Amino acid sequence: MSERGSGVATREAIRAAAERLFLDRGYARTPVRDIAGAAGVNAALVIRYFGSKEELFLETMRLTIDDEPLLDVPIESFGRRFVEVVLSTDDIRGVYLALVRGSGESRIAERLREVHEQALVAPLRARLSGADADLRARMAAAAVGGLLYSLWVVGDEDLAADRDELVARYGAIVQQLVAPLP
Amino acid sequence: MSERGSGVATREAIRAAAERLFLDRGYARTPVRDIAGAAGVNAALVIRYFGSKEELFLETMRLTIDDEPLLDVPIESFGRRFVEVVLSTDDIRGVYLALVRGSGESRIAERLREVHEQALVAPLRARLSGADADLRARMAAAAVGGLLYSLWVVGDEDLAADRDELVARYGAIVQQLVAPLP
DNA sequence: GTCTATATGCAGATAGAC
DNA sequence: GTCTATCTGCATATAGAC
Fold this sequence. Notes:
The structure is a homodimer.
Chain A: H1 6-25, H2 32-39, H3 43-50, H4 53-60, H5 68-71, H6 78-88, H7 92-102, H8 106-126, H9 133-154, H10 157-160, H11 163-178
Chain B binds a DNA duplex through helix 1 and helix 3.
């Protein structure tokens, strides 16, 4: 079966190898030759299939946050729960780091905007209403983004030391933005 | 005068050209040859003087925030004023962006930690007291870092639209962390 | 001492052989 | 569909001109 089959499997092998290496080492520190090696093919073939290293990067560095566990959360505890979900969703860290560090390239920056909008702004925006809902959602997304930045880009060890306390207290800040006390 | 003089001027010309180009285009997108060209010398000379492109980058990407205008600020308006100062200090944007994007290199990441600590955490920490002062300062620094991240790395145009309102409202969040209401 | 010319080695990408 | 050979441009190292 599948006289035309093997190309598809090879393409997927390249994609999977690239995803793993990009998440692990980022864009700049991952040579195309290493991706090819991990996939068991020639480096030229990687370019053949995906056009360029940047295309392959964009093909693999996607992120969709699962909203569902957040929909049932009562509004009074939404801020904290959102921080908790973002910090414990597996894929976020690697994708976020790779996109932030690669954002000197304009297309990677564009992807970062999309991911930020979809993963942080949108879930917050969905729970807000009122005239300034959009601004509040964007400020809350900025605050959450700042937590990821401090923990993962800067690597603030003292901030990471007590994760439960961090979730509780930083969550309370986000909560203030989502549903300010009267 | 100065039989040994011209080398000093050349070195400074290279340093100045490098600073301008790194701030403008970042680390990855600035070839050593461009720096040399802008300084009017050969590329090999740049390496001669500074050892490597990375050394030169670290030599130029420093940042010291001027604390003084913050020392007199009453504690009730400190959060807002701090946001205002950070957003309007000229050098911060370029240095911050270049360091964040270059942070895949371990020495650049280390410099980012230093700058984050010195420019964001320390001024906040200086105004706080109490058992949890350090954690509160780090959370406030994360929040401010998130603002820079959203505005400059992500490029959230909607957030940037009304700067005065942003300063007032995001400043209020930082204020909550600096001096929480009783 | 200060600088240039040139060489080395690695990266992404292309042409075309098999 | 896959690989070999090769091009171009990069950071960096060395030799030696002035």
